[in-house]
Every structure is written in structure tokens, then in C-alpha cells.
Amino acid sequence: MNSIEYVLPGDIERRSFEIIGEELAQRGIVLPKEQEPVTKRVIHTSADFDYAETLVYSENAIWIARDMIRRGAHIVTDTNMAKAGINKKKLAQYGGEVHCFMADDDVAAEAKERQVTRATVSMERAAALPGPVIFAIGNAPTALISLYEQMEQGKFTPDFVIGVPVGFVNVVPAKELFLNSKVPFIINRGRKGGSNIAAAICNALLYGVDEA
User: Fold this and answer.
1) How far is CA 165 from CA 44, 62, 77, 82, 142, in A?
2) Which residues does the annotation mark as catalytic?
């Protein structure tokens, strides 16, 4: 049985990251320096060390995303849960806002009329936002598919994609769509992910903007 470790409330997160670092070292895993804060925060959120192996970053992804945030980028999520988990106050310091169109009544009505998913309509709404947009997808693979189809049709090219939907139906192939695209991305390969993971990635990017 593990012994109880007494840690002051303000030190819990710091100690958690120390433990994550220790366990990664024990596993022989060395994370690229620029990716380390993001991957570690995802592990901190999930207690799942598989993410150290399955998170995939396009070239200069961290730098690109943080530069977008500095320039006032908006973040669009596919769930209100992810929206709730993102540090909106921090994002607002740079002029950005978090959006989620999934629960909007007019989105639901249009999706029903067109016989498509709300995620599809939501991504189309997001494409009309001004300025740079970071898409943080943690639940709906159809959101990723919609973004890719818009790009293939020449209608819209996303500025940055965080693709971490969780589940079994179309999840893996939807993520794979962006791995060979020119769109900057952070993708988690396989079935794992979720709204909490999408929010954790966004927050890790936000917290590192000033440091960068």
C-alpha cells in the first residue's frame, strides 16, 4: 500500500508534475522540450501515460499555436464541457474568446433540416469567425471530418487543429485525415481523448504564451 504524502493545497499541481516527470524518466521517455508542457498537462489531466506515446505534433505546432494566441486567436470547441474547462480569462488577455455552437437552437434546427450532424453545422459557423481560429475537438469526429471536407472543397482551411475526439465510430480515421495535411495540428492517435484532453491542451498552450 502506498503511503500518504502530505502536500499543501497550493503545491499539489507542482508535486503532480514532479511525479509525472519521475515516472516518464523511469519509463525511459524523453519528451521534446517544446512539447513537454502540453504532454505533461494531458497526462496530469488523465493520469494516462499512453499520451506520451500517442500525441503527435506537426512541425513547430507549439510555436504556431502560441503565436496565434498572442495575435488574438479564438478557440472553437465541439462541447460546452471543453469550453468550460478552458481558461477564458487567460485567453481574453490576448483578445481571444472561446466559442461552442453545438447547443445553439438554430444549429440544431439547421442540422435537422439538412440531415447532418450539429458538429458539421457548428464547424461551418466557426469558419465564418474573423481572425485566426484554433479548433479544439474532443468529442465529435464528424467535426474533424467537416473541417477536412471544407478544406478539400476549397471552402475553408482551418488555421490550427487540436484533434482528440474519444470513442469508437470514425474516431481513428477522422484523426488520421490531418496527419498528412498542411494544417498545423496536435492529434492524439487512437481511440483515446475527450473534452477534458482538448481543454488541457488549450490551457497548456495558454500558460506557456508569456514564457515563450
Assistant:
1) 18, 19, 11, 11, 9
2) 44
